[in-house]
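Input (Ribophorin II C-terminal domain-containing protein):
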Amino acid sequence: MQLWHSVLQLSLLASAAIPTAAASAWGFTDATVSVNTKGAGVGAGVKEVIPDNKALTKPIALGVADTLKVTLTAQEGRTGKHAHQVYLLLQDPETGLDISYPFNVKDNGKSRLDLTQKDLPIQFLTAPEPLEARFLIGSFGESTAYNGAAFQLAVARNPDEPVPTVEVSRYGKLPEIHHIFKSDAQSPPIVITLAFVAMVLATLPVLGGVWLFLGVNVNHLPTALKSAPIPHIVFLGSLLSIEGLFFLYYSSWTLFQLLPAVAVVGSVAFVSGSRALGEVQGRRLAGLR
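Output:
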């Protein structure tokens, strides 16, 4: 009986340990870091192998004309896989400033990253101590992400060359802005105005001749004024008032002064004109032409 209980307890412990053993973690393998100088030729650079899931002991120097190349294979457990996030994190140990650079990851987990000094923040170019480089590898699922040191990066610069600077926009007093507005519209010369007035007045005799040719009946004027004196007088007066408003706009008024006055006089002309035309229609229906 005791043997049976011992076997049962061991079975329970083994079953409880299976999920823990099955849980895997992200890491890397086949990691290398190399520095190649532009125009130095093949084999002139430096290449170091980074131990699996460990950090490189010696620092890597990156010059002005150098290119840093980092390669690795992301793996989940012992299998190379495409991780959702593979980053190289650079951090200044003195100030705590850091920046991350994403790797170019393939489906089999092989990842690559190229960097130059132009890709680094200006604050890193003057760092007195080597920068700490870390690998960040993680993805969806229950596997534990990897966050560990990879190597140290020493940024080497020529002391005779100035460090690039970036102008930063800051809040403060700005120079005074002087607005130059467009000048107001001016009336045309009086000669052009008189020429157009003459052309308009020259059409009045033509209009009178057309009326006489069509047989205008001036004898009905007393009858019209007797039947509806107020609509006819107000309608003709409103037409003359509109012409007077246009003259004021030409001489001294502005557009904002003209529009309300034209709206009022135009409404009066519409109402009185409809009444006057109604009287004319009544005479025509009665056969008086």
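The radius of gyration is 47 Å.
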